[in-house]
Amino acid sequence: MDHLPVRFNPAELARSGRATQITLPVSHFARFSATLADDSGEVVIDATFGWTEDRLPVAAGSQTSKVNVTCQRCQKPMASEITSQFRLVFIATESDASELPDDTDPVVMGESEDISVVDFIEDELILQLPVRVVHEVESECDPTVLAVLGGEKSGEKEASAGTHNPFKGLDELLKN
Ligand SMILES: [Zn+2]
């Protein structure tokens, strides 16, 4: 397995058909780390380069991010590992994206012949973040924060037990 350079030329790698790997600190990804609890952790990217049927450079592989996300129940950081597969096609302009097969995503190169690993993979990292993350069991959550959020917590329980009807007020309104 070759080392994927921090900045690379997709067409050159496609010609060689190489399997590459790189590990980068999460702190290198400004937009991605802004969505996390902090910028510690790392991202491992495996990418094998080749050509699409239309002779566009394509990188297929996987990424594994070891990051700290914010628990949305207690607001404390929690370690999380996110893995996803990607198939990214390098195109010159946004308008070329409409021609691509459904199982691929575009990476817009613009005028440039090379691209940084960050620009190549950052959208994929952000897309793969779960919408809602919480500690698996409530006992892992920070108890002092949960005590403060007591009102919200009991609201959640009512909803799951089915005793809370958010449309109750609406029903009564319609009766009148
Ligand atoms: Zn928590």
Task: Please explain how this structure is put together.
The chain has 176 residues and is of the alpha/beta class. It has two domains: 2-140, no CATH class; 142-176, no CATH class. The protein has helices spanning 10-16, 30-34, 117-127, 143-148, 150-161, 168-175, and strands at 2-3, 7-8, 19-25, 41-51, 57-70, 77-91, 105-108, 115-116. It has a six-stranded mixed sheet. Residues 157-163 have low confidence and may be disordered.
Task: Write a brief structural summary.
The chain is of the alpha/beta class.
The end-to-end span amounts to 72 Å
- Which overall shape is indicated by the principal axes computed on the Cα atoms? elongated
Average per-residue pLDDT, rounded, comes to 88
Q: Please mark out the parts with pLDDT under 50 across 5 or more consecutive residues, or reply none.
A: 157-163
Strand order, sheet with most strands: 1-3-4-5-6-7
Structural Rg: 22 Å
How many domain modules? Answer: 2
Q: How many separate helices?
A: 6
Core attributes:
alpha/beta; 8 strands; binds zinc ion; elongated; two-stranded antiparallel ribbon; single chain; 176 residues
Secondary-structure blueprint:
Blueprint: E1 2-3, E2 7-8, H1 10-16, E3 19-25, H2 30-34, E4 41-51, E5 57-70, E6 77-91, E7 105-108, E8 115-116, H3 117-127, H4 143-148, H5 150-161, H6 168-175
Parallel strand pairs: 1-3, 6-7
Antiparallel strand pairs: 2-8, 3-4, 4-5, 5-6
The structure holds zinc ion (ZN).
Residues 71, 73-74, 76, 134-135, 141 line the site of zinc ion (ZN).
